[in-house]
Amino acid sequence: MEKTRVQVLTLVLLGLLKGGWSFQVTLSKDPVEVGDDVVFEVRSPDKPETGSWQFRNEQVVFWIGTKLVVGLKYNDRIDVNYETGSLKLMSVKLSDSGDYFVHLQKAGEPPFSLTGNATLHIIDSVTKVTVNSPSPYPILNNTFSLTCNVSGNADSRSWLKDGQPLSAGDRITFSKDNSAVSFNPVLVSDNGTYQCIANSYFRNGTSTGYSLVVNCKLNLVCVADGPEQVSIIGPDASRIGSTAVFTCSARSQPVCEYTWFINGKLVSKGSPYKIHPVNSSNDGSYTCTAWNSLTERNSSAVKMHHVLDSASSWSRHAVAMVIGTLVSAAVLV
């Protein structure tokens, strides 16, 4: 172990005595945020008599003893440690990113001539995030988009709707860098508050909420609600050969679209459903589904309908209904 140390020290001394030696400069931090300070730390074997720092072939600073010559771009922005040759660069800018070179010399004992370098990385952090749209009004069934604007450097962006992560879908797509979200087409169900989150190495930023309200026409906000309270009006039973009419209704804005199913099979569309003549296949469970295209919601109601094949069957059904009504009344009493 002791032999190894002697070999290393001998190698260092030989390098110094020959008049040149390279070393690595250490940065106090890297990367550095715009506006912060950074120190290029140098450890020389002794106090240098002269030294210089260069950046992109431009003189940052040159000194002899304690007399400094500072480059015009670096007035009031640098400080030199004469004991070591370390350089402090203050209030860094994006343009300060790059390779820095130092040269230190001493003519006395022991003499040395040292050169070193370091690469500085500057990052402009996120300072402000805003969301806007190139279109003043989102018009129903048209294309609409939102843009995330960031002051500073954002490594990534993401979107929120009403405080929850927004995902891509058949209608909703993101640009390659997530700086924009497009709706094709935009629907009332897209109404909500949208925010953009911009992430960077040092800090993140979140925009204020952008309220998206879809218009049916220019300057006319779509009023949409429902469907609710779906109901079916029609006979509980019908005789073969007769006519049966069923009507479906719901509370909805705008008016709903209605679809009819018998025993799970699609049979008709529209609020009224007429059967003539009634036959045995019309017996069973009737379902009416109300659909609101603006809210993109649906709701259903179910009614049982029995088909009777004779007058006697009809009479028995009527008697059963009367008895059921009387029993219910008796229970209530």
From TrEMBL:
Segments forming domain Ig-like: 110-215, 227-300
Manganese among keywords: no
Gene3D superfamilies: Immunoglobulins
Organism field: Huso huso
Pfam families for this protein: Ig_3
Transmembrane feature ranges: none
Keyword terms of this UniProt record: Disulfide bond, Glycoprotein, Immunoglobulin domain, Signal
N-terminal signal peptide: 1-22
Protein's name in the database: Carcinoembryonic antigen-related cell adhesion molecule 5-like
